[in-house]
């Protein structure tokens, strides 16, 4: 097949050069955006009297037919074509003859590809956002079910203070809510139309870029043609937004992996979201969580790859930029899969209230509350902190817990201790009293749940 760009050269290239140069195996997924963009372009050319109304109608009908034929499987992609843009134009010209050749007036593949990818990623963002919302909803529902389930909260992975499992889960809901916000923000900056920038310098034709932008659902147009065809910051931005989202999922995964180990036994994943071992019959492995954690590395890798590709490129278009697609497509595919699996895994996960409480009871995580007790009775915090620490040391020595020390023992440390202490340092009280906004009390967690539901 002769190259559409044959002219300056005879267009006869080596097969290996063609294969190397070609992007159709990964950009063919943008066929719909490419065709829709071309329809708007034909309409604009007619509206501006650059081509006749009849020619535009013929082009639009031809493009519509191509779209239908691709979707019905009647028109297979020609992998010999350089890219999806060439494919569509080639089929159109085969079918319409000379009229087909008029479509590419006042545009270039450079603004065309920039347009297609923005339109494609815009839709991806909508899908990713919807899936993120579903995951937040699943997390929030779990948090409601376990709003009063006491567990140890950690710092340095050392038991620190009692929290509830509901509180813990809502922490992740808040992170994902910010991810949603970042996605919306990314979409906003992405939604500017580059079409009409042409190869790099604009055009001598009397085009109407706003007409095309509006027809294709853009909020505005790229204001500088060199910029419009040569920056891929919107891809980088989306990939960093998704990297942050994946970082959140990865941390959550790590906790789920830990919590479902025999050492913790805080949660039980449903059989539907675990796997067995081919050799160890006792195993129930949290593969889904591990894969989400693992795929986070791949998403970060894609981001670094594109940043590196772009960093030394002179303006405007360079073929290096064709490398944007595999990285950003893979990132979107990966995060969509992770979000779906994660939502299912969370929705079917159960928590073991007894084990969580047991772990909470063993870690002296009411030591802060014990110190606070003395402070409320008039002792300076540092002195109270020291006594509380000494009491913990005593418990460790006697292999007991603060709740079980006798009042006589307490009195030898301070006369301020009285019977109400036991009530004050019970884990339930420790949780219930943390009513500060955002805190772990059932009331605070319920307020967090209500907030997230409102945001959704
Ligand atoms: N397949 C190319 C890409 O993905 C399309 C743009 C080609 N433009 C050019 N002047 N070679 O970047």
What does this entry look like structurally?
The chain has helices at residues 15-21, 24-27, 31-47, 53-71, 84-96, 109-145, 165-190, 209-215, 225-230, 233-259, 287-310, 324-347, 353-362, 367-376, 381-398, 407-413, 420-424, 427-432, 442-455; strands at residues 150-155, 158-164, 192-193, 220-221, 267-268, 350-351. The protein is mainly alpha-helical. The strands form 3 sheets. The chain has a two-stranded antiparallel sheet with strand order 1-2. Strands 3-4 form a two-stranded parallel ribbon. A two-stranded antiparallel sheet has the order 5-6. Helix 4 crosses helix 5 (84-96) and helix 6 runs antiparallel to helix 7. It binds arginine (ARG). Arginine is lined by residues 23, 27, 83, 109-110, 113, 317, 319, 321-322.
């Amino acid at each position: 097949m002769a190259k559409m760009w044959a002219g300056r050269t005879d267009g006869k290239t080596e097969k290996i050069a063609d294969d190397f140069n070609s992007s159709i195996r990964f950009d063919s997924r943008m066929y719909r955006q490419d065709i829709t963009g071309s329809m708007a372009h034909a309409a604009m050319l007619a509206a501006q009297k650059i081509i006749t109304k009849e020619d535009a109608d013929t082009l639009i009908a031809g493009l519509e037919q191509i779209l239908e034929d691709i979707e019905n499987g009647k028109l297979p992609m020609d992998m010999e074509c350089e890219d999806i843009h060439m494919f569509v134009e080639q089929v159109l010209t085969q079918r319409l003859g000379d009229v087909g050749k008029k479509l590419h007036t006042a545009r270039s593949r450079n603004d065309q590809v920039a347009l297609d990818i923005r339109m494609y990623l815009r839709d991806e963002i909508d899908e990713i956002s919807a899936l993120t919302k579903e995951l937040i909803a699943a997390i929030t529902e779990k948090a409601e079910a376990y709003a009063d389930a006491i567990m140890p909260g950690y710092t340095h992975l050392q038991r620190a203070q009692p929290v509830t499992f509901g509180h813990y889960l809502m922490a992740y809901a808040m992170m994902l809510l910010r991810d949603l916000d970042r996605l919306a923000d990314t979409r906003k900056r992405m939604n500017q139309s580059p079409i009409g920038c042409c190869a790099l310098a604009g055009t001598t034709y009397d085009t109407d870029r706003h007409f095309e932008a509006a027809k294709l659902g853009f909020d505005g147009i790229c204001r500088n043609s060199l910029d419009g065809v040569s920056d891929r910051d919107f891809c980088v931005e989306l990939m960093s937004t998704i990297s942050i989202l994946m970082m959140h999922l990865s941390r959550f995964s790590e906790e789920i992996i830990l919590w479902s180990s025999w050492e913790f036994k805080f949660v039980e994943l449903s059989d539907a979201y675990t796997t067995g071992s081919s050799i160890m019959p006792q195993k129930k492995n949290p593969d889904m969580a591990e894969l989400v954690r693992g795929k986070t590395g791949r998403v970060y890798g894609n981001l670094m790859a594109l940043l590196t590709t772009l960093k030394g490129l002179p303006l405007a278009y360079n073929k290096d930029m064709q490398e944007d697609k595999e990285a950003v497509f893979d990132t979107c595919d990966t995060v969509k899969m992770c979000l779906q699996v994660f939502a299912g895994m969370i929705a079917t996960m159960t928590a073991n209230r007894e084990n969580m409480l047991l772990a909470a009871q063993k870690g002296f995580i009411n030591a802060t509350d014990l110190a606070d007790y003395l402070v409320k009775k008039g002792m300076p915090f540092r002195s109270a902190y020291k006594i509380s620490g000494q009491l913990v040391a005593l418990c460790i020595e006697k292999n007991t817990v603060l709740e079980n020390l006798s009042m006589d023992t307490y009195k030898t440390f301070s006369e301020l201790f009285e019977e109400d202490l036991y009530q004050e340092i019970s884990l339930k009280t420790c949780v219930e009293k943390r009513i500060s906004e955002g805190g772990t009390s059932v009331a605070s967690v319920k307020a967090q749940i209500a907030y997230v539901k409102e945001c959704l």
